[in-house]
Design goal:
This is Heat shock 70 kDa protein 14. It comes from Zea mays. The chain has 8 helices and 10 strands. The strands form 2 sheets. The chain has a 5-stranded antiparallel sheet, with no helix packed on it. The chain folds into 2 domains: 170 residues, Substrate Binding Domain Of DNAk, Chain A, domain 1; 195 residues, Up-down Bundle (Substrate Binding Domain Of Dnak, Chain:A, Domain 2). By secondary structure, the protein is α+β, with helices and mostly antiparallel strands.
């Protein structure tokens, strides 16, 4: 059974920050990273200062006396607060994965408190004054540094603050004050002891760039040399195999001799040439080999291109000669144009095929796959809009107006029966009407009184 385990890197030294206090205070030092501190690690310090100051990064009690105690010095500033008091500076110190301690950033924090407005337009009472007096006017009255490990957890203190704010609202009816924190980045200048000067560092960077450029040129030169060698082997094998029918015997022997010459040159005088020389050698070989390769590829794809054009001609011709109802709305003159275009394309194809069939394989082709594809696209572009023309929408037919029949004359007996039925319907509707009339409205006098 195996237990889960992890390996954490620890820093072998203790690191502290040191800076000079104000005129009345002695120099201060704070241990930031203890020996064995996990890396990487970041900590934030809060320092109260009124002007530009320097922070030294130091080893604390190094075991080896040959190690200089001071690592680097950071000049923080200039900065100035709006109220003229000491500035609250948030200093972020980082121990990176390489074991290097740096001051990453310094932020100046300024709090702007808005004056609370009373709902009754009354002055705040003594309780509010006491709360204001509890806030120290000088943040550096004690120590001028605070190191934050983690944010405090909310607990009973939060509840006490809530109760306190409730009591203030009850007594003075004052809205809680709003605080706005203004953050300003403070410039930091670094001085690392024992490091290269800025000019020397720039020279080293330029030298590294030159070496990287040389490595890239060497790599590209090697790729071009390998391309020449690969072309020699590949072309020679194909000349004896699938390219043999697409080159004359004389050209074949000449090209094979040229390939052998270049191969010998690669392993003798051309062993260590420049990139441009290898490019020129490859272009010289391709000037003879590319036409052979083109003839083979055209012969390989010509059959499918011809079949595609024939299918296109057959499809549009059959559609134009069809008696199908979906083509009846197309005018006969338009159909004739499609038939003529198909016949023209077919004639062109027959002539080109006859010319191509008369040529040997090692001759340059006259019927190219690109021309066949272009011819098929032209035919499709001309015929398709005609044969896919939609049918015209039929006009809606309005129905004839309906004739109204005159009422037939009625006999006296039919008129009498209709009158009786009307009377009976009225009598059936009278009871609710009588009931509505008998409802006595409020405040009305009785007529029998």
């Amino acid at each position: 059974m195996f237990n889960n385990s992890s390996v954490n890197d620890g820093f072998p030294f203790s690191i502290a920050l040191s800076w000079n206090g104000d005129s009345q205070n002695a120099p201060q030092q704070t241990l930031v990273f203890q020996k064995g501190n996990a890396i990487p690690s970041t900590k934030a310090l809060t320092i109260f200062k009124s002007s530009t100051f320097e922070v030294d990064v130091l080893y604390v009690d190094p075991d080896n006396s040959q190690i200089p105690q001071k690592i680097s010095t950071y000049t923080i500033g200039p900065f100035q607060t709006s109220n003229g008091e000491k500035a609250k500076l948030k200093v972020k110190v980082r121990l990176n994965i390489h074991g290097t301690v740096t001051v990453d950033s310094v932020i100046m924090l300024e709090e702007d408190v808005e004056v609370p407005v009373s709902s009754a337009n009354e002055a705040p009472n003594d309780t509010m004054k006491m709360d204001t007096d509890d806030v120290p006017s000088d943040p550096a009255a004690g120590s001028d540094v605070t190191m934050q490990e983690q944010p405090p957890a909310a607990g009973n203190g939060a509840q006490d603050n809530e109760e306190k704010s409730v009591s203030m609202e009850t007594d003075a009816k004052v809205e809680p004050s709003k605080k706005k924190v203004k953050k300003t980045t403070v410039p930091v200048h670094e001085l690392v002891y024992g490091a290269l000067a800025a000019a020397d560092l720039q020279k080293a960077v330029e030298k590294e760039y030159e070496m990287a450029l040389q490595d890239r040129v060497m790599e590209e030169t090697k790729e071009k040399k390998n391309a020449v060698e690969a072309y020699v082997y590949d072309m020679r094998n194909k000349l004896y195999d699938k390219y043999s029918d697409f080159v004359t015997p004389e050209d074949k022997e000449g090209l094979i001799g040229k390939l052998q010459e270049v191969e010998d040159w690669l392993y003798e005088d051309g062993e260590d040439e420049t990139k441009g020389v290898y490019i020129a050698k490859l272009e010289e070989l391709k000037k003879v080999g590319d036409p052979i390769e083109v003839r083979f590829k055209e012969w390989e794809i010509r059959g499918s291109a011809v079949s595609q054009l024939l299918y296109c001609i057959k499809s549009f011709r059959e559609a134009a000669l069809s008696k199908d109802q979906k083509f009846e709305h197309i005018d006969m003159s338009e159909k004739q144009k499609v038939i003529s275009e198909c016949s023209e394309a077919e004639t062109w194809l027959m002539e080109k095929r006859q010319q191509q069939d008369a040529l040997p394989k090692h001759a340059n082709p006259v019927l190219l796959a690109a021309d066949l594809k272009k011819k098929a696209e032209t035919l499709d572009r001309f015929c398709k809009p005609i044969m896919t023309k939609p049918k015209p929408v039929p006009k809606p037919q309005t129905p004839p107006p309906a004739e109204t029949q005159a009422p037939e004359p009625q006999t006296p007996e039919q008129q009498r029966s209709n009158g009786e039925s009307t009377t009976s319907e009225g009598a059936a509707e009278e009871p609710p009407a009588e009931q509505m009339e008998t409802d006595k409205p409020e405040g009305a006098t009785d007529p029998s009184a």
